[in-house]
Structure formats: structure tokens, C-alpha cells
Amino acid sequence: MLQIGTKAPYFEGVDENGNVVKLSDFGGKKLVIYFYPKDSTPGCTSEACDLRDNYERFLSLGYEVVGVSRDSIASHQRFREKYQLPFHLISDPEHKILEAYEAWGEKKNYGKVTMGTLRTTYVIDEQGTIIDAIGKVNTKAHTAQILKN
Question: Is 0.85 topped by the overall pTM?
């Protein structure tokens, strides 16, 4: 994982509407950037819905939220619409952002080792510095992990 206190890597990706989203778009705000394996799977849906249900709270505290996965723009559109997600989802099929944020790596599933998305969340401050890094995400209570309550 990236270290707390280091500058967040620059990123640029395309969201569910085909718009370019980049780190500099969030200057002056805190950013929660979360990396998840796949749209519409149970854990990823729980995580997204927990963030959705607390989105107004994040905004009131000066945070923005962005999700990143390898899913396509069309998949992100369906996922966002189905669960009424108020935040943007960036499509990263070539896992460039995932790799930059060390959210891409070896995963073990039933003894089989594959490369994939490592469920990870970073909180970035207004100056672009990582102020928190969460590697053991509780998908059902992720907001509490992020906001520490």
C-alpha cells in the first residue's frame, strides 16, 4: 500500500458518462478514492451502498468520493443507475490507476493465485497528500472505517 504522508499519485480516467476525471479536479477537497473488484457483486455492492447512504455526510465534511474498477463505462453506468450511486465511478480496464495506487496484485482464491484488484481505499487531503490508507475494508461499514466512527 502507499504510505500515509506521501503525495497521492496523479491519475486520469474516464467515468461512467465518458468524462475525464483527474486528481486535480479535487483540489481543495478531501478525496476518498476506493478501489473495488467488480460492479454488482455482493461485497462491492455493499461497499458502494454504504458510501452512498453516507454520501451527504461525506460532502458536509468536505469530502468527495470516487470509485475505481476495471469494469467498462457501460458496466459502471448500469451499476450507478441500479443502486443510485451519487458519486462517479472510473473505468480502468488497463489497471493503470490501480497499479499507481498499489491496488493491483496477486490474489489467492481457493488456492489459485491470480492477478486482480485489491480492495483498497485511500483518503487524500486538500493538498493531495495521503492521510489514510485502508487495506482491510469492511464492505458493510466502510464509512465508519473512513471517518473513524
Answer: yes
